[in-house]
């Protein structure tokens, strides 16, 4: 993989660097690496280097890089009818709505379609406001909900700072972060209860990732999410679960909410919805909320809402999860991954914590295991784009494993098709890479 120095860029990488404005990046420091091929859990760069994809790219390639059923469905739909205006329908859109009603819990039954996670969140915020007639949204500090104006305002992590003061009424609460926070996870819930009481009857929704993703893979205690739903409802607020990263088998259940037996009022999803074969977002609501919009207009929509090709990819992806038993498989392989991460924790003093559920796990690094002191600060990371955890991830790349990282945590979210032997290969690469932080 290129280290980013200008001399090493091939023609495509040079064109990309000159003409594409990168996301979240500093143009002078970040150089693109051209990827030319993907097969199963592996992908290959233009120099022929092969990598195990231990993070499913941006925690979205849940089906790996050669799910032929999905690619074929995309080609067929594009050949038949690629696009119709949202006031028409297609078999693909109707069948995907039906499938989502089938795989989501409880009485979640109707879906508003968009094209990304951030749009799924925007729709959820507006639906909650229209339905409750209230304006505020409570979300948590260690969270990411998207980059557009509303969704970045309800995001808690430092990526929100550049967009502040942001959307009015976006209030932040503490998190269930047992390893690094001074507040016990269940205590943090009672704090939220008090916050809602003090806000009076003005909060439309409480928005959480049931298992926090890019902010460090935080799994709350079993009782947390059921109690949060109770607290939200006691104060007349809806519970929105953001399943954009945790959904579609990542946790060993269809959705992160299923791990805790909770049906939220609104569920948002994207990423694994098509296994990243097409951009698609979805906001699924309960029967009651859907009924409200029989009489009242949902003043929201996009040209590409329910795009036929993306919906065809979604149907084929869900059929693949079902027919290849990928959800159960993620639960089983997840146990193996958990044991192998524990081996890394035993071997490396810089591994402070390994945590997660299913194939959704994190390795949090520390420079002082007893005091749990993090490497660098969040603000440093945002300002400079480089900390020890970046160096560990880069070293893993040198050993043939791609792993995403954020703040002090390596984020492990491979395709659900990964085998134990492939996990072993990736763990060997991390074992070598962690020498950098020890
Ligand atoms: N919500 C969560 C939990 C996410 O992890 C993300 C993206 O990583 C988003 C929302 C935003 O999704 P997108 O990047 O598709 O807009």
UniProtKB/TrEMBL annotation:
**Cofactor dependency:** pyridoxal 5'-phosphate
Q: Which GO terms describe its molecular function?
A: pyridoxal phosphate binding; transaminase activity
Which Pfam families does the entry mention?
Aminotran_3 (PF00202)
Q: Which InterPro entries match?
A: Aminotrans_3, Aminotrans_3_PPA_site, PyrdxlP-dep_Trfase, PyrdxlP-dep_Trfase_major, PyrdxlP-dep_Trfase_small
Q: Does the keyword Cell cycle apply?
A: no
Which keywords appear in this protein's UniProt record, sorted alphabetically? Pyridoxal phosphate
Q: Which GO terms describe its cellular component?
A: cytosol
By sequence similarity, the record places it as follows: Belongs to the class-III pyridoxal-phosphate-dependent aminotransferase family.
- Entry protein name: Taurine---2-oxoglutarate transaminase
Q: What organism does the record attribute this protein to?
A: Halopenitus persicus
